[in-house]
Records
---
Amino acid sequence: MSKLGQVVEAIEKYNKFVLDQVKRARTDEQFGRELLGRWNDIKAKTPVTHTPTGLPLPRLALPEIDEPGEIARYLFDEGLPGEFPFLNGAYREMYLEPVREIEAGSYGRKTSANGAKGKANGDGARPPEEPTRLFSGLMLAEDTNERFHYLTQHQRTQRLSTAFDGPTLYGIDSDADGVFGKVGEGGVAIDTVEDMVRLYDGFDLGSPNFSASMTISGPASIIMAMYIAAAKRRFGPKVVPKLRGTIQADIFKEVQAQNETIFPIEASLRFLTDMVEFTTHEMPRWYPISISGYHIGEAGSTPVQQAAYTLSNGFAYAEMFAARGIPVDQFGPRLSFFLDCGLDAEYIALARVSRRIWAIGMRDAFGAGPRGQLFKLHTQTSGRSLIAAEFKNNLTRTAAELMLAYMNATNSCHSNSADEPFTTPSEEWIRLAAHGQAILLEESGIFKHTMNMLSGSPGMKAVERAVEAAILDEFREIERLGGVLAAVEDRYQRSQIQNAAHRYEQQIYEGIRTIIGLNKYRNGEDDAPEIKLARTPRKKQQLQVDRLAKFKKTNADKAKRTLDKLVAVVDRGENCFPALLEAVEVCSLGQITGRLQEVVGRFRPMV
Amino acid sequence: MPAPIRILTAVPICDGHDSAINTINLEFIRHGIEVIYLGYHRSVGDIVRAALQEDVRAIGVSSYNGGHVEFFAEVVDLLRKRGASDIKVFGGGGGTITHDDAAAMKRKGVDTIFFAGTSLTEMVDYVRKNYGKPREKRPRPKSFDQELAHKLSEIEEAAGKSRKHRTSKIKHRTSKVIGFTGPGGAGKTTLIDELVLRFLNQNPKGRIAILSHDPSVIGEGALLGDRATMINSQDDRVFMRSMATRGQAGGLSPATHDCLALLAESNFDYVIIETVGTGQEAMPFQKNGIVDLTVLVMNPDYGSRLQLQKIVMLDLANIVVVNKSDLQRARTAHTEIEQRLEQNRRDQQLIDTVAKRHRDPGVDDLFDVISMVGRDRRAPRRRGRENL
């Protein structure tokens, strides 16, 4: 049995445990009394807050139950926000406004001397972070750097999120055959450590107020090595343990859905584990993987498939890292998740259920402590749900999806721009998308006064039960196929996703699935936003190619030697990350991937 | 009935968005179109080479990652440069391609761009209407490969009208011909691609041809997808042609024999022919006296030991490969097949491979054995001819 089988057993066992506790609460009087006592205590200690209109509300809403069995069911099956199994939230207060601010009736500045600053975060060393993390990357490193500085100029904390161009995502250089037109398109072009130095120039990479996110998976370990090398060039070797940020590095979802895989699966997983082993040891503040269902959802999966494949991928990574000998309490808290949120009914509780399954699985199948049980989630609204026809309807779609994402207590969220079906979002529509979040969280009273404001309706409960059962069925099927890796190699997830995508299109075509403006209530007018295309000028593309040529020429001899050393390490089966750190000093991304592919092969696409 | 329309579909380099094209491919084949699918992350060079060799009527490009104006134009330009302007280009990219972009692309020679919301039916109708008419006079081929591709099309079209196009007598046989067959899913395509990689590395000037078969769906078209997985075979030194069986049973197409004969006299070092996944009774190369060496690729999961007695190719193949020999069942499979081959008392070889593994020693062995046949080529071919 793979770990996934054990996870299934753990969930079944836990669900049975809940029922046993319910029964016990009803038969064992003393236990029942204890529960009732605890319940009343929780309610009594919950502070009351006042809305701007003067309505008193508890900061934590709880079901109106007083029967010990039902209390047991609630506490064990769902848990309070921030308590195992975390159905209602990974943290206790999530989006709530700090207490004293509300009591003081001041809604603006958070700098008043009330102690709220720093407290919400639970980490006194750094100020509370804004949830804002805008994904950006364009043209060359210096252009993106300028954009980074512009985006963070008024922020206390600098949270950068880096998008790479196509050649970088596929691990090839800007001078590779036939990619010239793609250099700097849709993301930043990175070929060498020198580009990496330019990219984050002017930012204090070792500061607790800085974190960098890098959305790249295929060549993730090489890009990670370049980031570390760039940081060392600027701040010396002592900066390494202070580096904070995230790199996506999710190989399974690439093979299942997104198709940015460059090495064969096993080699990719080995490079990933090499990197994770290094970062968990040397860079304790770094998130070396972001386990992503978003791309699975966008490729057309059903919501249940999305959650099931993402969670099972996560458990498979955990199994791999544990097998390498990395302690679960070291890597567990460094795992994070990324899900899609669309408009199907499942999304009412998809992330809630995922959080519960992850917590039980990590605790009971992997023996993780509390920090390793948390399903830390970033959500993005569904890009696939947005359409070109009558595109302004996309604002409503995104708003509804945001509502669902927050009802699921996501830890952070990205809302899509309505003009996404056409192009890289323009400023006008980005503002509307970002303000959509602010309106829900800050302007409306839906999420800021009371935790559990919309949790636990009978309908939500019904969705939770159905979704959990369906996810477990998927787990059983994957286990039957020999576990995640075997199923991936068998194209199981990939075929399921493609099948679902086809069905989705068919449903739209047949009118079974309503899409307003497309197959219903069409006004027939073709409205499109005025699009200013942000294209990379040829001159810039040429500049990138020229300086890459210079880098290669300067380092030619050393490059050959370090690459020989790198492949020797790879061949011997040792952790190759330290050798990668040396290689990036003198080799380009394409030189390294090219040489590694000679040794481990290229990824053979699955069709 | 007119011959099916053959088109090529692909997703541009540095773009992995294959969800739309997968759906569209299925819709095309459901309506009688033969689709050669090249896969995602494909360069202009790969796309044009494949289109030329496959001699398709049109190329459909599905682009979602930007840079489409340049990319489509490069495809059109390279086709023109190679003398293949009769291969048309169309495509789409949801909302990522604006109306202005599309206008610019059309000015540069693209036939049409499908916008977001275009129904699958509209796309099928467009392809049938615009690429379904018989070809007019062909332009003079500009290269050896193009000429070969045109001739193969003539053979295939003639076979469709059940006319014998040419005699199958080979005049100047110049290539060694190796036939690969075996059940579906045994890994024939991957194995061939790995052999091609070894060939290209060891013969800096050598050329190789591949004739690959995929089944036609009854009453429908065919999805010819081998190119998408054959990453090493997308090379100027490899000439590859994908054929649909078009209603013929047994793993090959009505035109295979003549196509193979033509390739065998076209100066390739090797011509590799791959059948569709075959059943137990199949003996696809029986009538093709052209094949020098046959390789049966087996999956360790063939069922009970008795099943082996029924597999005709086990009597006929020169080499039997047990691929996926990393599977648990592979050791038993090796022993059982070995015993089965001993009954034949012929000089047959049994080799275990894991084709999906890079630098697999089993594939190295197979490559060596095949290369050895070349060293004293005449003898085995003459001897083998009665059997093959």
---
Amino acid sequence: MAMISRLGAVFAAIAVLPGIVLLADMDGSLLGARVAARLSESGVESPVTAVLLNFRSLDTFLEVTVVAAAVVGALALPPAQAFGRQSVPSPLAGWLVARLALLILLLAFYLWWAGSSRPGGAFQAGAALTGVLLLLRFTRQAQPLVGFVAASSGPAVAGPLLFLAIGLLPLAAGAPFLDYPDGWAKVMILTIEAGLSISVGAALALLAIGGREGR
Amino acid sequence: VNSVVLFDAVGLGLLVLGLHALFFRPHLVHKLVAANVAASGTFLVLVRIPAEGVPDPVAQALVLTGIVVSVAITGFAAALADRLSAALADRLSAARGRNDLDGEGE
């Protein structure tokens, strides 16, 4: 067994290391230049968002599908031991957390909107939403919402489904999957990103909590 | 030191360290951390790919995708490891219970 894993390590080192160095030494400017040349057609001004939600949107669609699969997998496990049953009620937690949660929600909204023109987007906004949900979780606020998020695959699956639905729309006009029609790219990208923000936020919170809690 | 060389050296170093721990540490949580360290190494090499003096957006998008996927996998693997250790603890205490009964019979 030890022999096999040792061989595996050597093989991984031999196969992976040169692969990564070669990849890094490829003329990366080629792709970067092509993105810059056609950025104006993408509907957004941020090159990273253009790659994620337009030029390589299929990759992003598959990526959020992986996140949804992780959520479905975590929910398929038996319930975990409930976290911290006995908590000391704090007079500060409710007041502070409610205000912090609103501030972080505002930040998430900004990150979603900023994604079209500067660093930001669905995953950053989703991470901020996860922050809100975990803050509520650890201070035992908004328990119905947190309980729903921790036990349902619905939000995690809804984002990819919305992505799929919007991606299928161009097919009606004879265009390829995810080929946004002229003038609609920005609206469609922002709609997908709004759905993904909520989806990623709920999925990461569920995974951080570790699936269903019981007993 | 040239910053490209520095990024590559640190990235490859993290990858080797992570892979080593992933294969030789028996503890599941160690393996989980190791896989993330190895992944960080590859991300570090990827984000330094330049495009005309600024970071390449394609490489950045690739790394962002990689980070999200590795977070999802880490979350699922951690949940799996948690249930596994709970099941092991249950089995251990059950075995111990049987041994105690055997002891009383003697």
